[in-house]
Amino acid sequence: MSQALVEFKTVDHVLQALGVEGMSAADVHGLLIGMLASQSNLTCKLWLEKAIFTGAHLDAESDLFSNIMAKEQLKQLEALFKVSWEQLSAGDFTFALLLPDGNAALTERASLLCAWTQGFLTGLHLSGVNIAKYKEGELATTLKDLAEVAQLDLAIEDSNENEAAYTEIAEYVRMAALFVHSELAGSGQATQMTVH
What we know:
The chain has 196 residues and is an all-alpha fold.
């Protein structure tokens, strides 16, 4: 059985502490899962360089690693990477989306679900998956559905009906991510990323 994910608030705090602007924990996790779902040789370092610290080369001499506090923050992101990979590849449906808990307002949770989904699709793209080439079949339908979720209307009120709809959509996104991973990895379509 897989470990639990690092908490949403913890990852948000880590991103702020590292000076990552414009990305929430949901964005970062969606990117990670999209890249893991479609790339068989992804490393934590490559994910950090490609998705979070775009264009940076993270090595022992980089400014980021020379800061002791940043090293501790990076350990949290490494834990997120490790647990996410374990959950995604376990095959036991323990995989979870990194989203705020039910104490957050429904509008915030819905917005972050859309951000997670957009991150997932972006992660696929960063890994070299050409989503447009999938025109037929269950994978094409799933990718189209995910693109629609990423664009959902976020002006929703807290209600039992909307809460149930959110829960259903979040579960669909979770299962869709697992399906995309199984299709891309299982059919040999997972990409080998070339590092330049």
